[in-house]
Write a structure and sequence with these properties.
Order of helices and strands: EHEHEHEHHEHEEEHEHH
Structural class: alpha/beta
Number of domains: 1
Distance between the termini: 48 Å
CATH topology: Rossmann fold
Largest sheet: 7 strands, parallel
Strand order of the largest sheet: 3-2-1-4-5-6-9
CATH class: Alpha Beta
C-alpha cells in the first residue's frame, strides 16, 4: 500500500519518537522535523532500519512562524498526517518572574504549534484529506498555581484545535486533540508522578495511532483523567482557590 508520509513536528521528544516508531511500524514513511535536526540522524537510521520505511529529516523551528510556509513547501511530499509534539513545560517560578521565559513557554506551547497547524490545514483542506494531531495537556483545563503559564498556553492550544476541528468539519480533514496527562519522559524524570495516572510514551503513541485510525476527536491517554478533570472543572471558584494542585 502506498502511504503518504507522517510529519512529526518537535521530533526530538520522547513522545514524538515513540509516535514515529508507532506509525513506522504501520508502514508509514516519516518526516522528522526539529531544531538542529541533524542530531537526529541516529534515530532516523534506527527507525528506517527497524521498520523498513523511508525516514527524512527536516530543520524546523516552531517559533519561526514567518518561515512555516517555506518549511512546508520544502518537504519532499505533503504529509497525510501531521503530529505536533512541540512543547516546553518551563518552570513556573521562573516564568512568573521573567517575562521572556513566560513568552517562550506561551509561544512554544501555543503560538508555534497553532501557526504551523494552520498552515498545514490550509494545504490539507485544498487537497480534501489529511489528519492533524495536536498534543495538548490536561493542564489547560483550569489554571492552577503550580503551572498556570504552561496551562494557559495549553488551554489556548486546546481551544484552537477545537475551533480548527469545527472549521474543517466536512472538508475531509480530521483534527485530533491529545490530552496525555502525566507522561514518564526525560522532561518529568525529576517529578514524583503517581503510577496509576502516568503513561509511558509508547502508550501515548498507541493512543494517537488508534485515534487517527478511528477518527476520534479528543482523547485522554488514560481515561481516568477525563473524570479527574471533570471534577476539577466543576469545583466552585471559592473552593478551587483553597486547593493546592
Amino acid at each position: 500500500m502506498n502511504r503518504l508520509p507522517v510529519l512529526i513536528l518537535g521530533a526530538r521528544s520522547d513522545i514524538a519518537r515513540a509516535t514515529a516508531h508507532a506509525f513506522a511500524a504501520r508502514g508509514h514513511p516519516l518526516q522528522l522535523a526539529a531544531r538542529n535536526v541533524e542530531t537526529l540522524e541516529p534515530a532516523r537510521a534506527d527507525i528506517a532500519l527497524r521498520h523498513g520505511v523511508e525516514v527524512t529529516l527536516h530543520e524546523f523551528d516552531a517559533l519561526d512562524t514567518a518561515g512555516h510556509a517555506a518549511f512546508i513547501d520544502a518537504l519532499p511530499a505533503l504529509p497525510g498526517i501531521a503530529v505536533s509534539a512541540v512543547g516546553l513545560m518551563g518552570d513556573q517560578d521562573q516564568t512568573r518572574r521573567d517575562p521572556a521565559a513566560a513568552a517562550r513557554v506561551i509561544r512554544t506551547n501555543f503560538e508555534g504549534p497553532a501557526a504551523i497547524l494552520e498552515a498545514l490545514a490550509t494545504r490539507f483542506e485544498a487537497r480534501g484529506a489529511g489528519t492533524l494531531v495536536g498534543i495538548s495537556s490536561v493542564a489547560g483545563a483550569r489554571g492552577r498555581a503550580s503551572n498556570y503559564v504552561y496551562g494557559a498556553a495549553k488551554a489556548g492550544l486546546t481551544a484552537y484545535l477545537s475551533g480548527l476541528r469545527n472549521r474543517l468539519s466536512g472538508t475531509g480533514v480530521h483534527v485530533v486533540t491529545v490530552l496525555p496527562g502525566f507522561v514518564a519522559t526525560a522532561m518529568t524524570e525529576e517529578m514524583d508522578l503517581p503510577a496509576r495516572l502516568t503513561a509511558r510514551p509508547q502508550e501515548v503513541a498507541r493512543a494517537i495511532t488508534r485515534a487517527v485510525s478511528a477518527r476520534r476527536d479528543v482523547i485522554y491517554v488514560k481515561p481516568v483523567w477525563r473524570l479527574i478533570m471533570a471534577v476539577i472543572r466543576a469545583l466552585p471558584e471559592p473552593v478551587f482557590k483553597k486547593t493546592r494542585l
